[in-house]
Specification:
Layout (H helix, E strand, L loop, with lengths): L6 H4 L12 H14 L11 H8 L3 H13 L3 E4 L3 E4 L4 H25 L2 H20 L3 H19 L2 H13 L1 H8 L4 H17 L3 H26 L1
Antiparallel strand pairs: 1-2
Helix pairs in contact: 2-4, 5-7, 5-8, 5-11, 6-7, 6-10, 9-11, 10-11
Length: 233
């Protein structure tokens, strides 16, 4: 994949405005979204001066944003090169997906134990919303946002602040991998079928089956993402 020589060639963005959200958060969101939309490609340098000029913010704000994105796994600091958009490593991806499979399986079990019938219905509605978005558009950002609603309900029903913090941390680190997986042809609709299977087991209050299907869903997503990563190599 050819990479742009500068940010201006690959990413056109209006300077961030001084609105209700803190300036730092606006810069983080703008960069995060550009990375997830692949406007800023894996391996591309993030030159502080160029970011300052494009976004109309200070060097301090840019550095704070890059530190946050580094903690999320979206940016990597490379000696002699500085900050670059993270390039998923196959070995790291395998480990992240294994951790995610174990964690999400536990969240699903807690959901079965603690969620109300109304929350189960909301989970079913979230899967339907994900399918509707997948039919309506090929925009990966919209599809990811729709799938995220599934996790919003799942975490709420699981009723665990600890699991919420851990899952949100993992989700942030696998965002590029999730976008990569769902962009593979046919993967989105396969994911819909897998989520329906999980919800069916949840509705039956069968925690072991729901956890097993969750693990299978995550591992199927990992196969898709890893194929894409290795093809890029």
């Amino acid at each position: 994949m050819a990479r742009a020589n500068s940010l201006a060639e690959s990413w056109s963005v209006e300077p961030v405005g001084r609105v209700a959200a803190p300036l730092r958060e606006q810069v983080i969101q703008a960069l995060r979204q550009a990375i997830l939309d692949f406007k800023l490609q894996p391996g591309q340098r993030l030159v502080e001066r160029e970011l300052m000029e494009q976004l109309g913010v200070s060097r301090t704000t840019v550095r704070e944003a890059l530190r946050e994105l580094t903690s999320e796994g979206l940016v990597t600091v490379v000696p002699q090169r500085g900050a670059v958009v993270a390039t998923p490593d196959p070995d790291d991806a395998v480990d992240l997906y294994e951790v995610r499979a174990g964690l999400e399986s536990l969240v699903v079990q807690r959901f079965v134990e603690r969620a109300s019938d109304q929350q189960v219905r909301r989970l079913e509605a979230a899967v339907q919303g994900f399918e509707d978005a997948s039919i309506r558009t090929a925009d990966i950002r919209t599809i990811l946002a729709a799938k995220d609603q599934f996790y919003v309900v799942l975490i709420e029903g699981a009723g665990s602040a600890v699991l919420q913090q851990l899952l949100e941390g993992i989700q942030a680190r696998v965002q590029i991998l999730r976008a990569t997986s769902l962009s593979e042809e046919g993967r989105t609709f396969a994911a819909v079928r897998e989520l329906r299977g999980i919800v069916e087991a949840i509705a039956a209050r069968d925690a072991p089956l729901a956890a097993q299907r969750t693990t299978e869903h995550i591992r199927a997503a990992s196969v898709s993402a890893l194929q894409h990563i290795r093809a890029g190599d």
